[in-house]
Design goal:
Blueprint: E1 2-5, E2 23-27, E3 43-47, H1 68-77, E4 84-85, E5 92-93, E6 100-105, E7 111-116, H2 129-141, E8 158-165, E9 168-173, H3 179-186, H4 195-198, H5 215-230, E10 248-253, E11 259-263, E12 277-281, H6 286-294, E13 300-303, H7 311-315, E14 319-324, E15 328-333, H8 342-345, H9 348-356, H10 360-367, E16 372-373, H11 390-393, H12 401-410, E17 413-415, E18 421-423, E19 440-446, H13 450-465, E20 469-475, H14 477-482, E21 498-500, E22 507-508, H15 516-519, H16 533-543, H17 550-561, E23 564-567, E24 569-570, E25 573-578, E26 581-582, E27 598-599
Parallel strand pairs: 3-12, 19-20, 19-21
Antiparallel strand pairs: 1-6, 2-14, 4-5, 6-7, 7-9, 8-9, 10-11, 11-12, 13-25, 14-25, 15-22, 15-23, 16-24, 17-18, 26-27
Helix pairs in contact: 2-5, 9-12, 16-17
């Protein structure tokens, strides 16, 4: 047996990954620049991004509920089996924030043995191996509706689970896997939940710890827990949330997005809350949030990138202004199953032409005021890292409207009388493309952000000047995510085309940034139903044990084959943080860790 983590408190850094948490301090304040009115109250007010409101607190993710503000709150209440974050300067395991003590892989990488910490739930019951097995049983039986599911990945790769004692879990895999991927991308998904309290199928039901061991019983429990998760109006006072493992517990929840977490007085781990109360405040617009910041109603929030040039006004109010950079990519997924435009998007030449029309440098520097960086493929580019292929680094499709026009005209498209490209009668534009089909796209963008609005206004102008029609629709983030199900062409909900949910980055990766959820056939977040055998093969190689070049090959293929339209990657947010707060280091994985926030001396 080969020990990977010898004991709790021994942190193993992924130095080979080279993932620095690129936190750039834009402006600072002196130590006497002011204090928050909440400082003496042991309370912190955190402003959620505009139109980005929590709508899920059950640690069993479903599609459309996997936003970072949801996951961050969940992990403050329910600690994962294995935790990684990027707030310490590199992306590492942070064992003080998880429930595992020791993790050992077998020499052939087909088994992991995990010893749990001596920990208890908030009701005093011990956290045991049965709680880990309970989560796995539920996800295995309901994997098709689990938001992180991809065939062959978690939970499929777990062949069997053994619980030889209350503090030991043995996971037997169906094959040998890359340890780095297994630790950082798979074991981090497991969030132990209390089998003694949650193995129920109705309100007030008698818990049955054996029920989830059958697929039928696990399906019944899942249905109940998910229905409770969807009933936002019942969160406050719901007894499910009385039993937590994390440093914070739920005190108040409004379906408008206002959430209050309080310190879990029974917490016996190493990541205890720094204050007694944290209020998460929703805003319907950027202007409303900025007004709240300026009025001193917010201790930790954000401002639009357009405000960076006037950072001194926030300094004078007692704030530090900090860029929160993310280990992320940003993109527009194509809906390859859209009944009208799916066949159009399926043509690589069309995707190449559209990519040539995205002026990433200008959008990053001008529209985002330097608070975004170009991205050309499926692997995070900032900071530079060992996973990137040269093909992605060098941008295979630079901004070039003339190249875009040539590609379209070489593949059967002609400019119509209205200045929009059309597939003329008899032209061979591609399989399934009807005569007279116009090259006119519809973007559904999340609302509430000036830079996002300006980015798509700029793109619309550029695209239409080049002969591509553009319609832009807007909706709140949760509405966008709820409007883009994986679908079949004949399905009535398949009318969406190009959704944008990337104002703070579209997808934040774990330390090992593979694409099985995003771009493999059937991936849980493969919204556009991208289906490519070569991509599946390249992703599969990134998951195998010991292949160091596989990630670069995947990077190159995604950059050139364009499963999505690549866009500049914005900072997660430009944070304004009261200079009296501590523990506010930004996590490049896109999560926040409210339990670590505290008022300094």
């Amino acid at each position: 047996m080969r020990s990977t983590f010898a004991s709790r408190g021994h942190r193993i850094g992924l130095s080979a990954v080279g993932v620095a948490a690129t936190v750039a301090l834009v402006a600072g304040c002196s130590s006497d620049s002011g204090s928050s009115p909440d400082e003496t109250n042991d309370e912190i007010n955190y402003a959620l991004p505009a139109n980005a409101t929590p709508n899920w607190l059950v640690p069993l993710a479903t599609a459309g509920k996997m936003t970072t503000h949801n996951s961050s709150l969940i992990r403050a209440m329910y600690e994962p089996l294995v935790a990684y974050d990027g707030s310490m300067g590199t992306v590492d395991r942070v064992p003080s924030a998880d429930l595992a003590d020791e993790i050992t892989f077998s020499d052939d990488d087909t088994t992991a043995t995990i010893t749990l910490d001596e920990r208890t739930w908030s009701d005093g019951e011990p956290i045991t191996s049965a709680d880990v097995a309970f989560w796995i049983d539920l996800v295995k039986a309901n994997k098709d509706v689990w938001g992180s599911y991809r065939e062959g990945s978690m939970p499929d790769l777990i062949d069997s689970v053994e619980t030889p004692d209350e503090k030991t879990v043995v996971l037997n895999f169906d094959d040998a896997y890359n340890e780095e991927w297994m630790l950082a991308s798979q074991l981090t998904l497991i969030v132990p939940i209390p089998v003694h309290a949650w193995s129920i199928t109705e309100d007030g039901g008698e818990p049955d710890p054996e029920l989830a061991k059958t697929p039928e019983g696990a399906a019944q429990i899942w249905e109940y827990l998910v229905s409770e998760g969807e009933d936002l109006s019942s969160y406050e006072g719901n007894p499910l949330f009385d039993t937590v493992s994390g440093p914070l517990s739920l005190s108040a929840f409004s379906d408008s997005g206002s959430v209050t977490l309080v310190a879990n007085e029974a917490y016996d781990g190493d990541d205890a809350a720094g204050v007694s109360t944290i209020n998460f405040l929703p805003y319907t617009s950027t202007d409303a949030e900025v007004a709240a910041v300026r009025a001193g109603e917010v201790d930790y929030g954000y401002i639009p990138t357009s405000e960076l040039s006037g950072a001194e006004q926030y300094e004078s109010l007692g704030y530090d202004v900090v860029n929160w950079d993310g280990w992320a990519i940003t993109y527009l997924p194509y809906n390859f199953h859209n009944p009208e435009m799916g066949p159009v998007y399926s043509q690589l030449s069309v995707r190449q032409a559209l990519q040539h029309l995205v002026d990433q440098d200008t959008i990053s520097d001008v529209v985002w005021n330097g608070a975004a960086k170009p991205g050309y493929g499926p692997v995070p580019q900032n900071p530079d890292n060992k996973f990137l292929a040269d093909e992605q680094r060098e941008n295979p499709y630079p901004f070039d409207p003339e190249a875009a026009k040539s590609l379209l005209e070489e593949n059967g498209w002609s400019l119509g009388s209205d200045g929009i490209y059309v597939c003329e009668t008899g032209a061979e534009c591609g399989e399934g493309i009807a005569d007279g089909q116009k090259l006119s796209i519809t973007i559904l963008s999340q609302s509430g952000n000036t830079e996002t609005d300006n980015m798509f206004a700029s793109m619309k102008s550029t695209f239409e000047e080049a002969g591509v029609g553009v319609t832009i629709e807007q909706a709140p983030l949760n509405t966008v995510l709820g409007s883009i199900p994986q679908c079949e062409p004949e399905s009535p909900e398949c009318g969406w085309e190009l959704p944008f949910f990337g104002t703070a980055g579209s997808w934040y990766f774990p330390a090992y940034p593979t694409g099985e959820q995003l771009f493999s056939t059937g991936g849980g977040s493969n919204f556009g139903s991208y289906d490519d055998a070569e991509m599946n093969e390249r992703i599969a190689k990134t998951l195998e044990a010991g292949d160091e070049t596989a990630m670069q090959e995947y990077s190159a293929y995604g950059a050139t084959e364009l499963p999505v339209m690549w866009l500049p990657n914005p900072v997660y947010q430009v944070s304004v943080i009261d200079s009296g707060l501590t523990g506010v280091e930004q996590d490049s994985l896109g999560n926040f860790h409210p339990q670590r926030w505290a008022w300094g001396e």
